[in-house]
């Protein structure tokens, strides 16, 4: 099942050379784990609900295990400080939903569980 690394990053107004180096090197850390960018900090076009005070990054992996192995890998761990010294943010690893996922089935299970 596809898994994702999500980042809500808050870059400083002026980016440092280290951030550019991070961006140049990250793909080589993703390749061994099948990671690929789906979204990479593109400007937010619209926020129809709430607020979004950051730059969104979404990276897809074939499995959660691949995502976790990438994040904890020595090459990626070495890159992290190049980013974190210049931008704050939140990063999470999360499973996607399986093929054919039906939210109504989830709602029925939750309804049954809360009915007692």
UniProtKB/TrEMBL annotation:
This is DUF1330 domain-containing protein. PANTHER family: BLR0684 PROTEIN, PTHR41521. It comes from the Bacteria. Residues 3-97 form the DUF1330 domain.
